[in-house]
Amino acid sequence: MKRILIVEDDPVIAEVQKDYLEASGLASEVANRGELGLQLALQRQYDLILLDLMLPGMDGYELCRRIREASNVPILIVSAKKEEVDKIRGFGLGADDYILKPFGLGELVARVKAHLARYDRLVGSGEWRRDELRLHNIRIDRQARRVFVNERETAFTAKEYELLLFLVQHPNRVFRKEELFERIWGLDALGDHATVTVHISKLREKLERDPSKPQYIETIWGIGYRFNL
């Protein structure tokens, strides 16, 4: 059974999330403070983390950063903070999704299950063959889910890795933001396409010699992005 960590200081919201997830076959545990959430995330094995931002003590941003330094487990921010800058900051720290409060419980479970399924495909299964992709100075070991830039291993979050792999597998093809969002996040019309922009920026920081003048991931103005051969 998949295990979910809920980091939420509002006991009513936390209990509703826990009950609905468990009714959907997902074991859940609640932490009501950031420090406790970090302790549990680092000491126990979870398949996904639901994270509020406004927490007593350590806030959700710092918690997201600390977890991401140690793990690639999917992190879904669930917050009432709705400004674009809050979403961009969350994605920049490694979050995989951003769900606004109030939210529909059906939507919450749908997003959780979608991220669980995609993470499973990335890290586990027989769908991934033991082979490598090489392009420019980038080497991707698909089964081990490891990326090397100039033969030095570089850390990528789950969504950064999936986006990079997709672009490398489709070089010289232009993709719209909406298309990349649907292909990678798989939640068409449920999310914010600014997510794609943030993740492209993070890829450039890790891949490009000069991210301000990208050679690999090119912006096609008014359309989208292209990974150049």
TrEMBL record:
It is found in: Cytoplasm. The modification 4-aspartylphosphate is found at residue 52. GO terms for molecular function: phosphorelay response regulator activity; transcription cis-regulatory region binding. InterPro entries: CheY-like_superfamily (IPR011006), OmpR/PhoB-type_DNA-bd (IPR001867), Sig_transdc_resp-reg_C-effctor (IPR016032), Sig_transdc_resp-reg_receiver (IPR001789), WalR-like (IPR039420), WH-like_DNA-bd_sf (IPR036388). This is Response regulator transcription factor. Residues 130-229 bind DNA. The keyword Phosphoprotein applies. SUPFAM superfamilies: C-terminal effector domain of the bipartite response regulators (SSF46894), CheY-like (SSF52172). Residues 130-229 form the OmpR/PhoB-type domain. Its main location: cytoplasm. GO terms for biological process: regulation of DNA-templated transcription. Residues 3-116 form the Response regulatory domain. The keyword Phosphoprotein applies. PANTHER family: REGULATOR OF RPOS (PTHR48111), STAGE 0 SPORULATION PROTEIN A HOMOLOG (PTHR48111:SF26). Keywords: DNA-binding, Phosphoprotein, Transcription, Transcription regulation, Two-component regulatory system. GO terms for cellular component: cytosol; protein-DNA complex. It holds the Pfam family Trans_reg_C.
